[in-house]
Amino acid sequence: MVCEKVQRRKTKIVEIGGIRIGGSNPVVIQSMTNTPTHRISKTVSQIRTLAEAGCEIVRCAVPDTRALKALPAIVRESPLPLVADIHFRPDLAVKSMETGIAKVRINPGTIGNRDAVKRVIRAARRRNIPLRIGCLLYTSDAADELDGVDLGG
Q: Which helix (H) or strand (E) holds 122?
């Protein structure tokens, strides 16, 4: 097997729960749980399994208040930095930042309008929590909502 050297783009360094990504840092293995997040023991068990397999950062879906309420316990028990993956509910994105999570991931196409996205961005800035604004292909038209939004530096 021949491996070619990949030319990496210059990116900003971001720290997620003590793990540095971006810049010239090594690629970090990230995964996502597929358990109902409110089932704390099952979610933590899966996170531990991911950690044993080499995962370094893990995302958990936060679709409702039950999942939100489980986050503090999961954060306490998790051996990995935890990312709250939020769709449709900007209020959950903001509230998740109070649970000890290391990062929030939203999709501007499902989180709501421009004001909802700005509200989440402002909350992340206030708390110094990294925010990934990820856009899936099927919602890419909605990403135009971010046109002109100052994401800061």
A: helix 114-127
**Cα three-residue angle 110-50-57, rounded to 5 degrees:** 55
Query: Minimal CA–CA distance to 35: which of 12, 58, 14?
Result: 58
Tokens coding 134 = 């990820």
CA dist 122 and 99 (Å) reads 17
The pTM (predicted TM-score) of the whole model is: 0.84
Q: pLDDT digits over 104-142, tens only?
A: 999 888 888 889 999 999 999 999 999 998 865 544 444
In Å, how far from its chain's centre is CA 58? 8
- Contact residues for 64 (Cβ-Cβ < 8 A; gap 6+): 38, 89, 92
- Rounded distance, CA 67 to CA 84, Å? 10
Tokens of 80: 């990995």
Name the token pair of 13: 């360094």
Residue 56 CA to residue 79 CA, distance in Å, equals: 9
